[in-house]
Amino acid sequence: MADHQEASVTLPSAPASVPAARAYVANVLAEWGLGEGEEAADTVRLIVSELATNAVQHTLGQSPTFTVDIKLDHEGRLEIGVTDSYPRRPQRLSADTYQDNGRGLVIIGCLAAESGGEVFVTPTAEGGKTVWIALPWTVPVR
Length: 142
Known about the structure:
alpha+beta; five-stranded antiparallel sheet
């Protein structure tokens, strides 16, 4: 396995960018050996969808773009981060049974926990933040 692999894409903060982010990550993962239909790939695509949706919906127009970073280290840890320029850290919203949104962080946290991973937030030097998910990588890398 390579010592370290990285990929990144910056997209406009628009709803159409959510599926673009998901497709980009799916393509990178396929290049690294994790293909369509595998449970881990489905989990990662769902996480990216939630993180990208949050970057679009909850930055209140104050982040014109968001960046998706994918990192795979030599110790078998996959990290995916979504960075925006909005300074407020993500917060869990109260979501009742009939609401259509407000569960993104709960979903991300559950998926990370089920996969043996973690979710964390880091500030950027420019005043924004990156929401990261780190997961163990169990697929041999090409």
